[in-house]
Amino acid sequence: MESGRIKVKTLTKQIIELSEELGLQAVSEYRTSDGTRIDIAILNGEEKILAIELEASFKWFPQRLLYDVVKAQRAGFPELWVVTSMPQKPGWIEGYAEEIGIKLKLIKENEVLQLFSSLWYLI
Q1: DSSP per residue, 13-53
Q2: Which domain of life is it from (predicted)?
Q3: pLDDT tens-place string over residues 69-82
């Protein structure tokens, strides 16, 4: 990892390839009905399984996290993974995500592919 930043393009490609192996569809830059974008949307046919946001910037992290939670909920995803290379604390946003029905996970870049491999529980 160079200078603590996420390798967004590489990680996106790896998640898309792994999705196909699992029989899922990964859509990069998924456009929502209200005009926002989710970095990677994982779909099983028409069913929305998982939204993944790759947060390479640490400026305004709490605000970005809240925005990611709202985008995922409005787009109809039950689960949101936020990949970040720096340790972050979601604070009250984690409780808010739970209140609006979003399962939120903050994941380090080096853990995401292994965790993603276990997506069988979502299928």
Answers
A1: HHHHHHHHHTT-EEEEEEEPTTS-EEEEEEEETTEEEEEEE
A2: Archaea
A3: 999 999 999 999 99
For residue 8, give the 3-state DSSP assignment. Answer: helix
CA–CA gap between residue 26 and residue 43 (Å, rounded): 6
CATH of 8-121, one of 3.40.50.9100, 3.90.190.10, 1.10.760.10, 3.40.1350.10: 3.40.1350.10
**pTM of the full structure:** 0.89
For residue 27 the two structure tokens come to 């859509």
Contact present, 60 and 9 (Cβ < 8 Å): no
Phi, psi of 21, deg, nearest 5: -60, -35
Whole-number CA gyration radius for the chain: 13
